[in-house]
Amino acid sequence: MRRSDETSFRTLYRSHTPDLYRFVVRILGGGDPEAEEAVQMTWVVAVQNLADFRWESSLRTWLAGIALNACREIRRRRIRDRVPFGSETQGEAGSTPRQDGERMDLERALESLPEGYREVLVLHDVEGYTHEEIAGLLGIDRGTSKSQLSRARKALRARLSRIPGEEPQEARPS
Amino acid sequence: MIEEREEELSEGESRALRSLRTERLPAPGLEDRVVAHLKERGLLRSGLGRRWLRAAAALAACLVLFLGGAVVGARLTSLPPEPTGNRFILFLYEGSDYRQSAPGAERERIAEYGAWARSLSALGNLVTGEKLKEGEQILGAMAPPAGGGEGQAGTRPASLGGYFVIAAKDAGQAREIASTCPHLRYGGWIVIREIDPV
């Protein structure tokens, strides 16, 4: 019986975790240990609340909402513990060496965005969520999602135009 | 009220951002750690476990159906949580593009469909599901004209391989659920019809 439960869970886990993991990496802009912690937190909450899930959104969207909250909790802890934002393992252990400098710049620029901008931009431009879905996930209205996205894109372009390869990271808003 | 104009992305920018979707995979050991953590917290044994045990019973029924290829009629309606919402039937067709499981690999295919059914059941969205016996019989007077009807025109008529009855809020949700069915991955296609409650 326990084995059956585990099998069921592993089926769900395997079908959703790759997307989930990639998503939390982008949202956290940090290292793998934190992303893995966010994935674990997400599954714990998801399993606890599975009975409440009613397909009002897709399972992917529902999990993304839980993952966002997990990421926020981790970020709050970062601030509390005064760990420099995204500095632990970014681009180090666990990540594949990158040959594409442009992509690396893009990742760095993305990670340097203020949290609100990064969340909307990752959700919309990377993950492909609609403004309606983003509004539901972030608890904002559709217009706010659109305007935040606009500003986020501008901010991203500004950062990309300022990053000449190995330029030190700028100070990030807390 | 003036809505701020959306800052459009160029095609290159859009492509670059979307390319970030395929970058990272979690460490292989994460799955086991998450499972261990859930077990430690009793989440795979207690509340969820009871529900999923019933779901597993439903799955077992499905497996029997898929394995034996016989219409056994295992009903899943009593499984908690009680399915609510409108009822839709998903007809699983196996057209000429459908990739049958390799000889000896039927159990894996069955397990995959069963796991999908089980996950629906755990969420209260599965009412029942059955595999139809092979060798369909169409009564002459009711058969669609050659190449017409719901089959694929000009090709071998698709064979109806089975069906699931699901509970969904509306047609959109039914489509969402159907889109996750493994049948599609094997080139099968699914016709969704809402059940008229009259």
Brief synopsis:
The complex is a heterodimer of chains A (174) and B (198). Chain A has 174 residues and is an all-alpha fold.
Keywords:
heterodimer; A: 174 residues; mainly alpha; Rna Polymerase Sigma Factor, Chain: A; Arc Repressor Mutant, subunit A; 7 helices; globular; disordered C terminus; B: 198 residues; alpha+beta; Alpha-Beta Plaits; four-stranded antiparallel β-sheet; 5 helices; 34% helix; 16% strand
Write up this protein.
The complex is a heterodimer of chains A (174) and B (198). Helix content of chain A is 69%, strand content 0%. Chain A has seven helices and no strands. In chain A, helix 1 packs across helix 3 (59-81), helix 2 crosses helix 3 (59-81) and helix 6 (131-138) packs across helix 7. In chain B, 34% of the residues lie in helices and 16% in strands. Chain B is α+β, with helices and mostly antiparallel strands and 198 residues long. Chain B has a four-stranded antiparallel β-sheet with strand order 2-3-1-4. The termini of chain B are far apart. Chain B has one domain (27-138, 150-194): Alpha-Beta Plaits. The chains are: A mainly alpha (174), B alpha+beta (198). The interface between A and B is large, with 56 and 55 residues.
At the first level of CATH, the class of the largest domain in chain A is: Mainly Alpha
Question: Do you know the CATH topology of the largest domain in chain A?
Answer: Rna Polymerase Sigma Factor, Chain: A
CATH topology of chain B: Alpha-Beta Plaits
CATH homologous superfamily label of the largest domain in chain A: RNA polymerase sigma factor, region 2, helix turn helix motif
**CATH architecture name of chain B:** 2-Layer Sandwich
Category by helix and strand content of chain A? mainly alpha
- Overall 3D form of chain B: extended
What distance separates the N and C termini of chain A?
47 Å
The CATH class of chain B: Alpha Beta
Note the total helix count of chain A: 7
Assign the CATH architecture of the largest domain in chain A: Orthogonal Bundle
> Which percent range describes the beta-strand content of chain B?
15-25%
* Low-pLDDT segments, ≥5 res of chain B: 46-53, 55-80, 147-154
